């Protein structure tokens, strides 16, 4: 056998000792101490993402939030007035002037902003914005009506702007409506503003039909 080959290959390990042949001489050598740990190698590539885990249990319900602010309230003050009878209304002395007032014999009133003094005076007890609509049922002829407001302490009532409506046929009801700011307390009325003499607001259809309302008005305090 080649001695060089023996020197490289003929050795074994037993109980921490190593058999070594050097120039044909057999000897046992003890294993030397472990060398120091080498430096950390570079980080390997990121592995593939594993499958998603199972969905966890639903958490406990959180505490109830604070109560929100109170929203705006609905209408608290309103009135409905109607006439169930026929009535004769005098005309104005000149077109646009204040003629005879419509009277009412049926009322539904809620709140304190509006009250009624028979037969025609609607009392506005609180200043504010008001939505007002009215309807009349005149006989044949040309007629016109408007709202008038008499503020407390004022010398004369004045026409409520944009509340004046009319018709040129008659024998059928027509209506008017307005939203107005009344800046003081006072009295509201529904009046003729045409100068064509007396007219009748009728409470039946065709003179022999069923009874109907001859006039009505709805008032709502908006703010």
Automatic annotation (TrEMBL):
<dbReference type="Pfam" id="PF01391">
    <property type="entry name" value="Collagen"/>
</dbReference>
<dbReference type="InterPro" id="IPR008983">
    <property type="entry name" value="Tumour_necrosis_fac-like_dom"/>
</dbReference>
<feature type="compositionally biased region" description="Low complexity">
    <location>
        <begin position="45"/>
        <end position="65"/>
    </location>
</feature>
<protein>
    <submittedName>
        <fullName>Collagen-like protein</fullName>
    </submittedName>
</protein>
<dbReference type="InterPro" id="IPR008160">
    <property type="entry name" value="Collagen"/>
</dbReference>
<feature type="region of interest" description="Disordered">
    <location>
        <begin position="27"/>
        <end position="65"/>
    </location>
</feature>
